[in-house]
Amino acid sequence: xxxxxxxxxxxxxxxxxxxxxxxxxxxxxxxxxxxxxxxxxxxxxxxxxxxxxxxxxxxxxxxxxxxxxxxxxxxxxxxxxxxxxxxxxxxxxxxxxxxxxxxxxxxxxxxxxxxxxxxxxxxxxxxxxxxxxxxxxxxxxxxxxxxxxxxxxxxxxxxxxxxxxxxxxxxxxxxxxxxxxxxxxxxxxxxxxxxxxxxxxxxxxxxxxxxxxxxxxxxxxxxxxxxxxxxxxxxxxxxxxxxxxxxxxxxxxxxxxxxxxxxxxxxxxxxxxxxxxxxxxxxxxxxxxxxxxxxxxxxxxxxxxxxxxxxxxxxxxxxxxxxxxxxxxxxxxxxxxxxxxxxxxxxxxxxxxxxxxxxxxxxxxxxxxxxxxxxxxxxxxxxxxxxxxxxxxxxxxxxxxxxxxxxxxxxxxxxxxxxxxxxxxxxxxxxxxxxxxxxxxxxxxxxxxxxxxxxxxxxxx
Length: 461
Known about the structure:
With about 450 residues, the protein is of the alpha/beta class. It has helices at about 15-20, 40-45, 50-55, 60, 65-75, 110-130, 140-150, 170-175, 190-205, 225-240, 255-265, 285-290, 315-325, 330-335, 345-350, 355, 365-380, 385-395, 415-420, 430-435, 450-460; strands at about 5, 30, 90, 95-100, 130-135, 155-165, 185-190, 215, 245-250, 270-280, 355-360, 405-410, 445. Helix 17 packs across helix 18. The protein is globular and about 60 Å long.
């Protein structure tokens, strides 16, 4: 299995090259040269999430790692989850189930992809006798999951930009209270977009790197994160109906990595009916799916901060594979002029949307209403991101065939102010979150308007 860019210039890349490089040199995102076909009869005989991962992950890694190497990595990858099989499936009614993906150490679904990424990073760096810097910006959950996943590996130093903005105190403290010599949280004085611009500049210039050192991308543009997330769609289908019938998946999304992972699973053989794309008021995806209008607008701060984005990074993969059917030349053309020029797909191609995708945008008022009504009806507390996915399902419930699985991507205890405002009391707070309240924060405050962030990385590298 080799990989290529959505924009056509980077080709014949091994898994290890894609892992370390993250983003293609031509600005595109890496894709596998073909979709491997999953043997569903084999999956049906498995029991655990790890069993499924040991089958799925090697389908993408054979160009760089033997199956024995991958099995050894996976046996030690997912750690500090508070339930044995990592994921819980909660039946709500006859047609709806909740896929609880928040049982990891940072209480968010990103533990799945980032623990996998960190394990492969460390394996590759040790093989090459190299070290690396993880450099990223976070709107809430990515930074904490990256720090937690990488902190045990001496080969990796993590520099995470935390924007002065909308994440909860718990989310911030998950990063700023980690006292490890290879962890450097930075409180940045700009918005998330300002932080992203600094990260992009860092990846272009790389001026702070030492010789024989890699710069690693941990956001969901990195293919290894997609691999980790593909696994839990097969796991959900196995546990719910032994992959005997299609399912609908309702997915709260910002950067589109989780949605694309579901799409990828379907390309590999997962029985799938519809993907319901739930977004908050930052509705670039909903505008595209409803009216073929993918145009950037200013970010609105909401009570579901992990979805507060202006552009969905992973959406290029769907444009390339689903709409353009692998036409890298056309993909390059439309993305080289974006965001100055909005993306509009030829009508006959765009009309394929209805075969697989539904979408809905939920504002804060209706997010609160959904959190309250869902608890009142089912005695089940959901966080604001999950509420966006729940409310989206309610808009289409009468027209959906088959059962629907709603992805719960974060534990509600990560958002105490929002939960209090919704008059919802959480009794089962994970110890990994409750222990943060009185911990001392150790982050440094730096500006995004000068070179102080890059100078700080140099000093600590």
